[in-house]
């Protein structure tokens, strides 16, 4: 793919690893996403601390998810139009899409709960969505096409399929156990997701609901399940790991208090 912008040509290896591989639009999307994410959270946290008013249009509070949706839809429309075939247009559209996606995911919790929970405990899911979006973009940027291998290589398509299936399985188990970051990291290195897949699930994860919550009519099995659930709560809610995750979320997105403080 011919480079249109070639913005980071001064970086060693950029032309070969990014431009020649056709990954510049994805890189620009990811950079735009991260910049918009940082600026948006910086503004909302400053506004929260200093009591800045929120944007209003006709007396209606305009959440930044609204311009985010408009940017994402506009970028998608242009990308699927004939103009999107031009390299320079595609890369500019990637920048617009990345910024819009960051605005949307920053208020993901509000879309999920259909109420203003930006600064509430439920609003932490927006930080999860933002980090997962960034990690997914990074994974796609550094990964190669899974079905391609060099001619003459002993690697077969079946072998690639088996390896990919195992990788996806480990990552899926991590997601079911509530370990989203390990699941995404495992798409690059399956050893990471394997460690999360074989260990205890988080207490509010689908896995915990299926296998840790006590069953009625089965006292012995129910006691075993209850012990697992209690261990999970100690590890992820009251233990060092749980405290670290809460601290990290507070650093990235701000401390949660109540829904009334949304900006």
What does this structure look like?
- This protein is mainly alpha-helical and 263 residues long.
- It has a domain of 137 residues.
- Helices cover 63% and strands 2% of the residues.
- The protein is built from 12 helices and 2 strands.
- The protein has a two-stranded antiparallel ribbon.
- A hairpin with a 2-residue loop joins strand 1 and strand 2.
- Helix 3 packs antiparallel against helix 4.
- 29% of the residues are buried.
- The C terminus is likely disordered.
Q: Topology as H/E string?
A: HHEEHHHHHHHHHH
Percent in helix: 55-70%
Shape: globular
Poorly predicted residue ranges: 259-263
Mean pLDDT: 81
Instruction: Tell me what portion of residues adopts beta-strand conformation.
Output: under 5%
What is the SS-derived class? mainly alpha
- Widest β-sheet, arrangement of strands: 1-2
Q: End-to-end distance, in Å?
A: 42 Å
DSSP summary, beta strand count: 2
Number of helices: 12
Major β-sheet annotation: 2 strands, antiparallel
Radius of gyration: 22 Å
């Amino acid at each position: 793919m011919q480079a249109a912008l070639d913005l980071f040509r001064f970086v060693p290896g950029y032309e070969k690893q990014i431009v020649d591989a056709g990954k510049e639009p994805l890189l620009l999307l990811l950079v735009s996403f991260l910049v918009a994410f940082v600026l948006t959270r910086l503004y909302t946290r400053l506004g929260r601390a200093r009591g800045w008013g929120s944007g209003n249009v006709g007396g209606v509070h305009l959440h930044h998810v609204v311009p985010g949706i408009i940017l994402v839809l506009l970028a998608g429309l242009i990308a699927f139009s004939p103009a999107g075939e031009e390299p320079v247009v595609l890369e500019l559209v990637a920048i617009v899409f990345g910024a819009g996606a960051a605005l949307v995911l920053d208020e993901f919790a509000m879309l999920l709960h259909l109420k203003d929970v930006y600064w509430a405990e439920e609003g932490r899911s927006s930080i999860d969505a933002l980090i997962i979006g960034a990690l997914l973009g990074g994974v796609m940027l550094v990964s190669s096409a899974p079905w391609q291998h060099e001619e003459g290589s002993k690697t077969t398509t079946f072998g690639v399929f088996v390896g990919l299936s195992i990788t996806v399985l480990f990552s899926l188990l991590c997601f079911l156990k509530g370990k989203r970051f390990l699941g995404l990291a495992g798409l690059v290195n399956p050893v990471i997701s394997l460690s999360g897949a074989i260990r205890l699930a988080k207490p509010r994860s689908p896995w915990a609901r299926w296998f840790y919550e006590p069953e009625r009519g089965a006292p012995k099995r129910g006691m075993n399940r209850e012990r697992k659930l209690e261990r999970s709560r100690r590890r992820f809610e009251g233990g060092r790991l749980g405290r670290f995750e809460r601290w990290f979320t507070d650093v990235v997105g701000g401390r949660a208090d109540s829904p009334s403080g949304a900006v």
